[in-house]
Amino acid sequence: MLSDLLTEKQKMFEPHFKPGLLQRTSTVFQFRFTEDEDFFLSVAPNAFSFSEGSSTDPTLTLYLDRHDTCWQLLIGTRDGMKAFMNGQYRADGNIVLSQLLLYLFKSDDPTVVFKVQD
Description:
This protein is α+β, with helices and mostly antiparallel strands. The longest helix has 12 residues, at about 1-15. It has a five-stranded mixed beta sheet with strand order 3-2-1-4-5. The protein has a single domain, classed as Nonspecific Lipid-transfer Protein, Chain A (2-Layer Sandwich), CATH 3.30.1050. The chain has four helices and five strands, in the order αββββααβα.
């Protein structure tokens, strides 16, 4: 059942949530799937929740093939560009938000930062 899956994912993603990353008071990501049931993600500065169905006023709509693709993109185990190039993912709306979404729950693995010098 979708509601059970969304509850499970909510708990799984909570430790990885990056509060304030979107720098907006409210954002709604609508997920539409070709093979699975639709759901949406509501994000506030310090909280998020997954809900079944369709939002009445999404900020951004994302089109994906399956739930698995969505979960892998959100947690960072699947590359967003590769999924896009393979036709598994596209977004309509604020493209900047679609890119930030890929970092909203991404694992806390250390990242190497390089400083460019002239």
